[in-house]
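INFO  loader      accepted 1 record
INFO  loader      residues=331
INFO  predictor   begin
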Amino acid sequence: MTALSDPAAVDIRFRGRRLRRTAALRELVRETRLHPSMLVAPLFVRPGRGIREPIGAMPGQDQLSVDELGPQAEWLLDAGVRSVLLFGIPESKDAVGSGAWADDGITQEAIRELRRTVGDDLAIIADVCLCEYTSHGHCGVLRDASVDNDATVPLLARVAISLAEAGADVVAPSAMMDGQVAAIRRALSGTAILAYAAKHASAFYGPFREAAKSAPAFGDRRGYQMDSANGREAMAEIRADLDEGADMILIKPALPALDLVAAARAAINVPLAAYQVSGEYAAICAAAEHGWLDRRAAALESLTAIARAGAGMIVTYFALEAAAWLREMDR
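INFO  predictor   done
INFO  writer      dumping tokens
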């Protein structure tokens, strides 16, 4: 018998395969565990009644009229998802996005409807930005065809106040304007802020712009959203938002920035979220429709990777499906 074929001659002290032999063993030693309560479901709200308008670029997702939010919330709660992120699609737009802070604005009405139908059972996060409400599609007011940061910040604070007064638990400034968190914190002492601290100018946002009808009429958003090549700058943005009073931090997009999720988790102690954005969702859906990927397996693997990197909250369009899958796996 040769040394290579003699089991006694092979001294392998670490054998990972010992703990992979059965499904029960693998589950016993699993390091990262997803739970439905970690998931945040984005919802797109539009005017009208009885409307569930499919979003072409995001199979399985709809624009909902306000009266459809109650049933949607009940389905989410039944699945174990207890948080939503609201985006409003107004009936009309103007140069400064005034619909974003209107008392009878679409997102404000959505918040009130959710409070009426499900009370405090659901954590309501409201996006704070102007892009869905401006006629030009940019995230702030314009001066000489460029976004004016300092003129925009007070308007974002006004939006946040309106959303908080409507009943939002959390306001989520996503415009990437310098000083936006500080302005909102000065205006609101009792409402939590989830800051889109590291929001990159990403190719993965395309389907969202169809869903929210928020594509810029000209140019792009690279002058205020981050360069995806800059990790150190992302960490500086995160620290700045915490210094300004943010309670939680969000990184967007998720999978292309897992290194930043891990770095942020190692550096900060506040709750950390990552947004699995529309393009990430659409790519998995499209591949699954062609039979190239298993939709369920790919979705859960991607969500697990985001959680493994350090995100305790995951904004994902798979929220309702993934929660049902996780519940099924637990039975």
